[in-house]
Write a structure and sequence with these properties.
mainly alpha
């Protein structure tokens, strides 16, 4: 009665022969120039990747990226924008807090420093924009009907001026010796101006 293939491979003699053959094949492969070249290429690639990653996380690189993002934002020029640029400059207090985010249990990096910078800066830009919007509300039109910039025309003021001739407020101001035109009001009625 003969052995099956599984029994033959499991035999101690076959195991010893397979181990010797594998040892010789691995030794030959490790000493080959192709294997050494592949390992060297792989290590060089990994080192380059680490160097590029470190280059983007230096304070100078982060400060340059922050300034680029601030200048590209819709935040108008002024003190708020200047304050953010200062906070995110090299040595700035906001930039000092930018560190890669790590998992609490494993310690593995879950967010790189540039990602943390982008999130932090986005939140600061949004907050500054909201503060400026509250401090400077928009008006639909001016009393004098002056046109705005940017190609959009403001809403048309009412036909009858609030302080124009014939209005009670205009009469009271004239009675007090005040010039109605000084307050941006129309001093003539529209009909009189066209005549």
């Amino acid at each position: 009665m003969g052995m099956t293939l599984a029994e033959a491979l499991a035999s101690p003699q076959m195991q010893t022969a397979l181990q010797e053959a594998a040892k010789d094949a691995v030794a030959e492969m490790v000493t080959s120039d192709d294997f050494k070249s592949a390992i060297q290429t792989s290590v060089t690639s990994a080192v380059t990747e680490v160097q590029e990653s470190l280059a983007t996380t230096t304070p100078k690189a982060l400060a340059e990226k922050a300034k680029e993002l601030i200048e590209a934002s819709k935040l108008p020029e002024g003190k708020a924008r200047d304050a953010l640029i200062e906070d995110y400059s090299e040595g700035g207090r906001a930039l000092a807090a930018i560190k890669p985010a790590k998992d609490a249990t494993t310690g593995a990096i879950v967010k790189t420093a540039p990602d943390v910078l982008a999130e932090s800066l986005d939140a600061d830009l949004k907050r500054q924009t909201e503060i400026l919007a509250e401090a400077k509300p928009t008006t639909p039109f001016s009393l004098g009907g002056a046109g705005g910039s940017g190609g959009s025309k403001p809403a048309t003021p009412p036909k009858r001026a609030f302080l124009g001739n014939g209005s009670q407020a205009g009469a009271k101001m004239a009675e007090l010796g005040l010039d109605v035109g000084q307050f941006g009001a129309v001093t003539k009625t529209p009909e009189a101006a066209t005549a």
